Amino acid sequence: MLNVILVKPENPGNIGAVSRVMANFDLKNLILVDPKCNHLSQEARNRAKHSQSILKKARVVKKIPKMDYLIATTAIRGTSYNPRSPLTPAQLSSIIPVNKKIGLLIGPESSGLSNKEILSADFVVTIPTSKKYSTLNISHSCAVLFYELFNKENTLNELASLKDKEILLENINKALGKIKFSTSDKKKTQKIVWKRIIGKSFLTKREAFSLIGFFKKIK
Questions:
Q1: Pair (133, 63) in one structural domain
Q2: Taking the model in full, what pTM does it have?
Q3: What domain range is 169 assigned to?
Q4: Predicted confidence (pLDDT) per residue in 153-196, tens digit
Q5: Rounded Cα distance, 166 and 163, in Å
Q6: How many Cα atoms are found within 13 Å in the side-chain-facing hemisphere of 212?
Q7: Number of Cβ within a 10 Å radius of residue 55
Q8: Residue 129 belongs to a domain with what CATH number?
Q9: For the chain, what is the total number of helices (H) and then of strands (E)?
């Protein structure tokens, strides 16, 4: 389930335009974090057209709500200004699950998301555009992202449960226990890294069971 999260939006017309694009893709959950304008203004309603119900039901909150996975959007590609290496929408659509609570973070029109907000996300996505003028209007960005993420076949296989991942991690840790590390800190680091990888991964049950079988064979 996708939640569209506009962080500190500044223009009511843009909020209305985003709600209209959401309606085009049967999306209903709009969340406004510390908005700097009135999302129910006449301008917003005019731009929303027949999607005004999304505006009326929008949640207004003070901080970014908790989600299973957060996706941050940015116009800046992998540079020193961008603390995370971004995926393209097509790359993201190949791994994102459809049965989890997903939050799509979109920053203020004038500045975009902060580095702190980008770092809080599980994934970062950027839309490939002209290097001469890369910034898209937020509603245009949403249209591209919604199309790639939800008008395309997504992961339909059943995802591994939390219990499946716990069993996998147990077997990984047992396998690590059989490997000789030069220091105990290196073994500890490996355990932390694997826990993060498995925790953020979209493993299917089949993939999880295959990995469990593999790590069980390590002697």
A1: yes
A2: 0.69
A3: 162-216
A4: 444 557 788 889 999 999 999 999 998 889 989 999 999 999 88
A5: 5
A6: 16
A7: 23
A8: 3.40.1280.10
A9: 9, 6
